[in-house]
Write a structure and sequence with these properties.
Layout (H helix, E strand, L loop, with lengths): L3 H19 L2 E6 L7 E6 L5 E8 L7 H9 L12 H8 L3 H13 L7 E3 L5 E7 H8 L4 E5 L4 E4 L2 E5 H4 L2 E5 L21 H5 L8 E5 L16 H8 L13 E6 L6 H11 L9 E5 L11 H18 L6 E5 L8 H8 L40 E4 L3 E2 L5 H16 L3 E5 L12 E2 L5 E2 L8 E2 L7 E7 L11 E2 L9 E7 L5 H10 L15 E4 L2 E4 L3 E5 L2 E6 L1 H21 L9 H4 L8 E2 L28 E2 L1 H10 L2
Parallel strand pairs: 11-13, 11-14, 12-13, 14-16, 16-20, 20-24
Antiparallel strand pairs: 1-8, 2-6, 3-5, 3-9, 4-5, 6-7, 10-26, 15-19, 17-18, 20-21, 22-23, 25-26, 27-28
């Protein structure tokens, strides 16, 4: 009888092995199109090395939304009781079963422990392979794609995994994904034309300008022509002096070579807030990031100058602002590099990322940042605003889901994450829409939503305007000057429970009259944006001159500043930060605390887009913040 346990163990091992050999292969991911700017170049060399990385399925990840609701919904008994980083790590680490299943399969295919290694955070398995081996393992074919800048990227159209392995793997890289930053290394020596692709991950959203301001206006009656801090304070009732700045924090994320110029900050503040002259943000350098001055101009300084001038002004000199400057001038950075730095559990192999997708440090080619990749080295601030985005269609559902889960983890830790919703209405970045065959085109007709805006665990911020010939005392409209507020419905993410009542009301009463093949008309998908703020005619000091600037790039940092002041008031009375705000702002108890926007639309893709209507809409969300009402409501919560 004592032999029975050994016999059972042997039988189970043989059964698992049999499953491995008999398990049929299934398509795991398939790419629908090649992103704009990329084109097929050639079949990849069979003997070339390719570092495969398997993203292991995280434990309990299907329940992450429920966990987040427990600390974020105003009616929850555990509202505001945020988790520690250690608690997050322990809850979601991949299971021993997942690790063992994938490693066993790899060993059966010739990759022993010397070639297949588990990363230190237990989230990934890295395999050193040749292209020929990778193609056999994944039943695929690798190609090299060229970007219009000269950058090259290795990818395949689809790949397969055995059925018994699929449930343990989120995705594999490099495969179908084009989440690649375009580094300065990939371009000519000339800086012209590369700023947006280098400074924005995935060539994302960037502010727009109509040029220099000839005559500066700073009176409330002129806010339809020029937005200055006094206009925003009047629009949103932001009259507040911080009381708990030593406990509070507000972070702005920038990607090198986007950089602020201190003389620009001083020029702006000398006009609008003299006590901030000479004050710089507290910069946290991520992977060699720094405020570069080698290249200047709107395309290099516009975004960062805008974000910091208004963020610092609106939270006042009493509240320091943190600048997360990601990436050096050579390699650049992507969202993953930033997320690695503020949450070490998100790092991949030995604290690094995928060299075909993200910046790798130390710089493997020389000439760039030689220090180790920043992994869990930066503390996340209570509120983080980012004015960059991808098109959702640039990425696969598996890939976006994993990154979206990371934002949920930040929410569990009490962090409010804001992203601008985009500047092209229902179209994607650059005005590109989708076509019926899955490609991008300026003449496409299929709506192209943004990401992370469609992730249900971030707060997406759209844009409004003071309507021409109107004042700050009259209702705003959706932004229809130079840019159009990004908004619509996700093609990947389901409608979260917290949003159902608001979105279903919109779809019932204001159903968009478009064919169902050009937008997600299912009635079950995530709608965005969640909120909005002014995004037109901002006066910004850039390279020694005031310019008029437009974009949801304006709206996100302004919203972040307002929420930072709400946090200050809660922290001052011993309460927790507001964390992930969406379940709260969509709840019945917060009805009427945003200024409803009912004018304007967000045209794109050859259509008028959606229309701003009473209640939530896919143009301006719930509306613009009313600080006194928001403050009163949040102070009542535990």
């Amino acid at each position: 009888m004592r032999l029975l346990p050994s016999f059972v163990a042997l039988a189970l091992a043989l059964l698992a092995s049999a499953d491995s050999f008999l398990s049929p292969y299934r398509v795991h991911e398939r790419r629908g199109h090649i992103p704009a700017g990329w084109s097929y170049d050639r079949k990849h060399d069979n003997e070339a090395a390719i570092p495969l990385r398997f993203a292991l399925k995280q434990s309990n990840i299907d329940a992450i939304g429920d966990y987040l609701m427990e600390v974020s919904h105003p009616e929850s008994a555990t509202y505001g009781k945020h988790w520690t980083a250690g608690e997050v790590f322990r809850k979601f680490s991949p299971s021993t079963e997942s690790i063992g299943t994938v490693l066993t399969w790899l060993e059966e295919n010739g990759f022993d422990s010397s070639r297949a290694k588990l990363t230190r955070n237990r989230g990934w398995i890295e395999v050193q392979a040749t292209v020929e081996e990778a193609e056999r393992l994944l039943q695929t074919e690798y190609h090299v794609y060229s970007h219009e800048t000269g950058h090259e990227h290795v990818a395949c159209d689809s790949y397969h995994l055995p059925e018994h392995v699929q449930s343990h793997v989120d995705f594999v890289t490099p495969t179908v994904h084009f989440d690649a930053k375009i580094s300065k290394r990939s371009t000519s020596d000339s800086p012209e034309g590369i700023a947006r692709s280098v400074g924005q991950p995935g060539q994302g959203t960037y502010p727009k300008t109509t040029g220099e301001v000839q005559s500066l206006l700073n009176q409330l009656e002129d806010c339809d022509q020029q937005i200055t801090p006094i206009c925003l304070r009047a629009l949103y009732g932001l009259v507040y002096e911080p009381l708990a700045a030593d406990k509070n924090s507000y972070g702005i994320v920038e990607y090198t070579p986007q950089a602020y110029l201190q003389p620009d900050l001083d020029m702006f503040q000398s006009t609008f807030s003299p006590d901030l002259v000479g004050v710089a943000p507290n910069m946290v350098s991520i992977d060699g990031g720094y405020a570069q001055t080698e290249y200047t101009g709107f395309e290099y300084n516009g975004e960062s100058d805008l974000d910091l001038e208004y963020a610092m002004n609106l939270v006042t000199a009493a509240q320091p602002v943190t600048l997360y400057q990601a990436g050096d001038m050579v390699e650049g950075a992507s969202f993953n590099n930033f997320l690695d730095a503020i949450d070490g559990t998100y790092c991949t192999f030995e604290g690094g990322d995928d060299p075909t997708q993200d910046a790798i440090y130390p710089d493997p080619y020389g000439g760039g940042y030689e220090g180790p990749e920043d992994c869990g080295t930066a503390k996340p601030t209570n509120v983080i605003s980012t004015s960059y985005s991808y098109n959702e269609a640039d990425l696969t559902p598996f890939y976006t889901a994993r990154q979206c889960s990371e934002y949920a983890k930040l929410g569990l830790m009490g962090v409010t994450v804001l992203y601008s919703s985009g500047d092209y209405g229902v179209a994607g970045n650059g005005g590109y829409c989708l076509t019926s065959n899955g490609t991008y085109s300026l003449n496409g007709t299929i709506f192209n939503p943004s990401f992370p805006g469609t992730c249900p665990y971030i707060t997406s911020v759209g844009a409004t305007q003071v309507n021409p010939n109107s004042t700050v005392y009259e209702p705003e409209g959706a932004c229809e000057q130079v840019i159009y507020s990004g908004g619509g419905f996700s093609n990947y993410f389901a409608m979260p429970d917290y949003q159902k009542t608001a979105v279903e009301y919109y779809l019932t009463n204001y159903y968009p009259q478009y064919p169902p093949d050009i937008w997600n008309a299912s009635g079950t998908s995530r709608g965005f944006p969640d909120i909005a703020a002014n995004g037109a005619n901002y006066v910004v000091a850039i390279d020694g001159a005031f310019e008029l600037v437009y974009g949801t790039s304006c709206s996100s940092p302004v919203s972040g500043a307002i929420l930072t002041m709400v946090n200050d008031a809660r922290l001052a009375v011993g309460k927790s930060p507001i964390g992930f705000i969406n379940p709260t702002i969509y709840s019945p108890s917060f009805a009427g605390v945003f200024n409803d926007i009912t004018m304007g639309g967000n045209q794109g893709c050859g259509t008028a887009g959606y229309t701003a209507v009473p209640g939530w809409d896919p143009v301006t969300g719930l509306g613009t913040p009313n600080f006194p009402k928001l403050l009163a409501k949040w102070l009542l919560l535990p």
